[in-house]
Design brief:
By secondary structure, the chain is mainly alpha-helical. The protein has 17 helices and two strands. Bound molecules: protoporphyrin IX containing FE (HEM) (2 copies).
């Protein structure tokens, strides 16, 4: 047994708390942009318009929240699973400071309108270099610690972390290859259809290797830890892992159905996308079977329901995603609000639930205390669950309505049944419903942040009391 003091928890603490802070800010920005959709006067040009704030919302949640929590939980898991102290703790602390400076710089540059105009790759080239440096620092610590490990067995979470580090590095560098024409402007080296193809190869896998593989690493590690139940099948977890990483990288063209991208590329993308159901559900089934007959833990152990609901949304997401890629479905829902419904079931359901529970498990452990309030954690759970369901359901109904209204034509002369403005006016009730769902979700996140803050506060107070301060 390696003693507790042999581990290095400072970077875990720093990244976990930074992630909660940036997540909170970005969720509030999500709420604001959702209001701007039905109250256009909330757009304040030039800095606080929908177009700029939307990019801040997405980057804030993907980089500020998800990546910070990935750093935090990876540094926790890698030390536990290898029974080895983090190889370069000082490097991780430098990474923490650069990370927070980079997030501020990213937000400011996006508000100032500096963008490469590529989804999830908006940041201009100086910041791209910063992101790559941060990722290399992370990779050095993860690979270094794994190489020096005292535990020979490589648990499945480590495989998912390795895949995350490699895939994000390759995807980010290739898609951001650009020629700078000034400090704040660059042009992609790719053009036209090639640019679209590379962009969505990147775009889909950014979802895959930020919102999926590292979150699966957390799920596989923390579910057994929280419930005390060993994972159902290691073999299934390994088969699901290799088939997932193999198929993921071929699916990007499903974002480009009915575009000038060659038909056969679209079809290859769709075929691999359908295949994705198998590895995704390999992990879902493994999670459910891990519970065995112990479903009472959903009631008795407050963390279990976060993980089980989280993996359930992942399961639904990975059935909905492949369905969307089919041409017959894409022609109806693409360009509609169905997509934000899909996105937020994954991000608010799967990602936010799993990360929330992993944080509740980790923070008391590294601060050597108990969680401040299980009651508040349960309150947090219900607010994010109900908020997310209202958000996703309203967007799915709206998406289908939009698709149908845009396609409706008169049988006599083929003219459009509805003007575009009529289809926009019909969106308002659903957009308001989304804001209501978002408000509930935001309340849940505020309760979460308060609970974690109080847990840390309590730990610091008792340490001070023990030291007689
Ligand atoms: C097997 C797994 C999945 C598949 C096959 C899949 C498939 C798809 C497809 C086909 C689209 C594009 C639809 C269109 O534009 O018409 C899409 C969009 C999206 N999905 Fe998924 N999805 C999966 C899982 C997930 C998960 C787990 C998340 C997040 C946690 C997620 C987040 C997103 C996002 C953010 C977009 C919007 C991309 C954009 O247009 O900006 N997906 N997905
Ligand atoms: C209060 C909660 C939230 C609200 C109100 C909200 C609102 C929004 C809105 C209005 C959009 C723009 C949709 C559009 O383009 O039509 C959006 C996009 C997006 N949000 Fe959120 N959001 C919330 C939480 C989250 C969370 C927790 C995450 C990630 C962990 C997230 C990730 C994203 C992503 C990836 C997109 C881009 C989707 C796309 O390209 O289609 N959001 N959000």
């Amino acid at each position: 047994m390696t003693s507790e003091s042999a581990y290095e928890w400072r970077p875990v603490k720093g990244f976990a708390l930074s992630g909660i802070f940036w997540g909170g800010v970005s969720v509030v920005i999500g709420l604001i942009i959702s209001i701007q959709m039905w109250m256009p006067e909330w757009n304040i040009p030039p800095f606080f318009t929908y177009g700029r704030l939307r990019a801040v919302h997405i980057n804030g949640l993907a980089l500020g929240f998800a990546v910070a929590e990935i750093f935090a939980m990876s540094y926790y898991m890698v030390q536990r699973l290898t029974r080895t102290r983090l190889l370069f703790p000082k490097l991780a602390m430098v990474q923490l400071y650069i990370f927070n400076i980079a997030i501020v710089a990213a937000a400011v540059s996006l508000l100032a309108g500096m963008t490469q105009s590529k989804e999830y790759a908006e940041l201009e080239w100086p910041l791209d270099i910063g992101v790559v440096i941060l990722w290399v620092m992370f990779g050095i610590n993860i690979f270094g610690t794994i190489l020096k490990r005292k535990e020979e067995q490589m648990y499945i979470s480590l495989w998912y972390l390795i895949a995350t580090v490699i895939a994000v590095a390759v995807l980010y560098i290739v898609n951001n290859l650009a020629i700078p024409v000034g400090l704040f402007k660059s042009y992609s080296v790719f053009a036209g259809v090639n640019d679209a193809n590379v962009q969505w190869w990147y775009g889909h896998n950014a979802v895959g290797f930020i919102f999926t593989t590292p979150i699966l690493a957390m799920f596989y590690y923390f579910l057994p830890k929280a419930t005390g139940l060993p994972i159902y099948s290691h073999r299934l977890s390994i088969i699901a892992f290799w088939s997932l990483v193999f198929a993921y990288l071929w699916t990007g063209a499903h974002h480009l159905v009915y575009t000038p991208v060659p038909d056969w590329i679209q079809s290859v993308g769709i075929a691999f996308t359908m295949f994705m159901i198998a590895p995704s559900w390999g992990s879902v089934v493994n999670g459910y079977y891990t519970m065995g007959g112990n479903w009472d833990k959903l009631k008795t152990n407050y963390l279990t329901k976060f993980f089980i609901l989280g993996i359930t949304f992942y399961g639904l997401q990975t059935l909905q995603g492949p369905t969307q890629s089919l041409r017959v479905v894409s022609q109806l829902v693409h360009f509609t609000d169905w997509l934000p419904g899909h996105v937020h079931m994954g991000t608010m359901g799967w990602v936010a639930m799993t990360v929330g529970a992993a944080t509740y498990y980790t923070v008391p452990k590294i601060y050597n205390t108990e969680i401040h309030s299980v009651k508040l954690a349960n309150t947090h759970f219900w607010f994010v669950l109900v908020g997310q369901l209202i958000f996703s359901l309203s967007m799915w109904v709206l998406g289908v309505q939009q698709g149908i209204m845009w396609k409706a034509v008169s049988p006599e002369d083929g003219s459009l049944t509805y003007t575009f403005m009529e289809s926009v006016a019909a969106n308002y009730p659903y957009w308001k419903m989304r804001t209501f769902g978002g408000l509930l979700f935001t309340i849940g996140i505020v309760v979460f942040a308060y609970n974690v803050f109080m847990t840390v506060h309590r730990a610091k107070r008792s340490t001070a009391a023990a030291e007689g301060r």
